[in-house]
Amino acid sequence: MSVTQPVKGKTAIITGAGSGINLAFAELLLKNGCNVVIADLGLRPEAQAVVDKFNGRSGTARAVFQKTDVTDWVQLEELFKVAEREFTEIDIHWSNFWRPPGSSESRDDPRGGRYRLLDINLTHPIRVTQLAISHFLQHRSSNKRKHIVHISSIAGQNPSTAAPIYVATKHAISGLVRSLAKLDNKFGIRVTAVAPGLIKTPLWMEHPEKLKMFKEGQDIWVTAEEVGEVMLALVQQEEVSEIIGDKERKGVMFPVEGGTVLEVSKTVRAVHPFNDPGPSNRAGNTIANAEAVEDEIYDLLSTPNWGKVKL
Questions:
Q1: Pairing state of beta strands 146-151 and 253-255?
Q2: Range of the domain at 227
Q3: What does the pLDDT look like over 85-115, one tens digit per residue?
Q4: What is the longest distance spanned by two Cα atoms in the chain?
Q5: What is the pLDDT of residue 310?
Q6: To the nearest whole number, what is the mean pLDDT of the chain?
Q7: Residue 174 falls within a domain, yes or no?
Q8: pLDDT tens per residue across span 224-273
Q9: What is the CATH number of the domain that holds 140?
Q10: How many domains does the chain have?
Q11: CB under 8 A, 24+ apart: contacts of 296-302
């Protein structure tokens, strides 16, 4: 596969890289010579090992951890200041978030006037996109294309009774990415996204209330590393194959441009804004036992006075 824009010598900011998909992508960037600023509330042991390994002392790319609450706009602005101080210029931004072990279960304050899930999954990506565009425009003297890559989901195409707010945020992310498509030709800022299927990360494996929807022998996990490979292709190549890791162009090739959304299950496909067939039952996209959670939701909604706020 032809690499037209190698990441070696560049710098990326990745929010939510303390675990899972974004950690896999961060490690892949570092192995390919790209410096990475990892922003999260904390680092899992495997993430700390990556930061320790890529310390820049042996001439390798360097990883820097910046503790960041992505719902705090001041901390997001500080994140970009740290990246500029450490590496001068930023070339890639990638946003996502995870909740580290030991953090409290999300319970929105009925007096708070906001949903934390929306702050994390939608407001935060919008805000860092604004900050990244501002930084990129200030460094337009460079002819290098800049990249903003978001994580949507197959939930950005499918409905889900089990996770309606999450689904709403992922529909919104896909819309945001497509709405910024023209920045590619106008300013050289390419905004794209991946839409992963069922990914084997701590967000699933450490949450039994979600894990019971997965049925062994019928559903198939996609790995964070597989998604990371497609992420890397989005920022290095002008085309991405339907076959993950395809270096010989054996699969169907999808062109990459501003607004591209690539679904990542056990294979890759382009997601179109109109008349798209949807994820269907492709390997890595199915959840066979969603009814297990849906039935619990119906039972909850059937309890007396459900949803009545006690202030």
A1: unpaired
A2: 11-301
A3: 999 889 988 776 544 434 444 566 666 778 9
A4: 64
A5: 66
A6: 90
A7: yes
A8: 999 999 999 999 999 999 999 888 889 999 999 999 999 999 999 999 99
A9: 3.40.50.720
A10: 1
A11: 297/161, 297/162
